[in-house]
Design brief:
3-stranded antiparallel sheet, 3-stranded mixed sheet, alpha+beta
Length: 148
């Protein structure tokens, strides 16, 4: 059963190196934003990239999943900060989004550190975006911090 559909549209003009594009999201939650090859590979200069958008989708999904499981287990978080970094590199001479590196900080009253870490690893890696990326990208949880 479909739960939702979300749509984004990109328009690209020109060749890869000198061209540019713009992306809009159907919801209107974000303003139209520019994309370029240079923003992917050299410097962002206020533009985004597909990899940054994957990172944004992943960090928001991951934080929702962890929050949900924590709350269901009686440990509603005061705050969770999830940073997802997508690594874009050349593999077999092809540009590839290869890895997502994740760092998590949370303030969750009354939870043991080991329970928090286990929840982050299990719930976060089971979020819909993590599941979509599995098999094509490695997901590494580099750091989990429970703050008091």
């Amino acid at each position: 059963m479909r739960m939702a559909e979300r749509t984004a549209t990109s328009v690209w003009n020109g060749n890869l190196n000198e061209g540019s594009g713009r992306v809009t999201v159907e919801s209107g939650a974000l303003p139209e934003f520019p994309v370029t090859w240079a923003a992917r590979t050299v410097r962002s200069d206020g533009k985004t990239s597909p990899e940054e958008l994957i990172a944004a989708a992943h960090s928001s999904c991951f934080s929702m999943a962890v929050s949900n499981v924590l709350a269901k287990n009686g440990n509603t978080p005061e705050s969770l900060e999830v940073q997802s970094t997508v690594i874009f590199e050349r593999i077999n001479d092809k540009p590839t989004a290869s890895t997502v590196e994740v760092r998590v900080r949370g303030r969750v009253p009354g939870i043991e550190r080991s329970t928090f870490e286990q929840t982050v690893r299990e719930a976060g890696l089971d979020c819909p975006i993590s599941r979509a990326l599995k098999g094509s990208m490695e997901i590494k949880i580099l750091d989990i911090q429970l703050q008091s």
